[in-house]
Amino acid sequence: MSVVKFLLWCILLVLCWPLALIALVLFPLVWLLLLPFRIVGIAVGGVLELVWALVTLPARILRTIA
Q1: How many Å apart are CA 46 and CA 66, to the nearest integer?
Q2: In terms of Cα–Cα distance, which of 2, 24, 20 is closest to 11?
Q3: Cα distance between residue 11 and residue 5, in whole Å
Q4: Which pTM was predicted?
Q5: What are the backbone dihedrals phi and psi of residue 9, each rounded to the nearest 5 degrees, phi first?
Q6: Which of helix, strand or coil describes residue 16?
Q7: Cα distances (Å, whole numbers) of residue 64 to 49, 58, 60, 61
Q8: Alpha-carbon distances, residue 62 vs 37, 46, 52, 54, 55 (angstroms)
Q9: Is 38 helix (H, G, I), strand (E, B) or coil?
Q10: How sure is the predictor about 28, in pLDDT bands with cuts at 50, 70 and 90?
């Protein structure tokens, strides 16, 4: 996937080099701004999996007994 991004950036560099340089500078800043949202998403996903495991626990216990 990173090779495709690099090739797209090279095409953008040939077609419009100022835009490519702006994208090169802004990409790390946008990544840093979005990092807390990724961390929150991972935490929420983990909590939802835990709740789902607790909800389905009685059914799994009954299935192993029977």
Answers
A1: 30
A2: 20
A3: 10
A4: 0.59
A5: -65, -40
A6: coil
A7: 21, 10, 6, 5
A8: 38, 25, 16, 14, 13
A9: helix
A10: very high
Instruction: Indicate the domain borders of the chain.
Output: 2-65
Residue 45, Ramachandran bin (φ over 0: left; ψ between -120 and 50: alpha; else beta): alpha
Residue with tokens 């990724």: 38
Residue with tokens 């095409």: 11
Tens digit of pLDDT for each residue in 32-62? 999 999 999 999 999 999 999 999 998 889 8
Q: Diameter of the chain by CA atoms?
A: 68
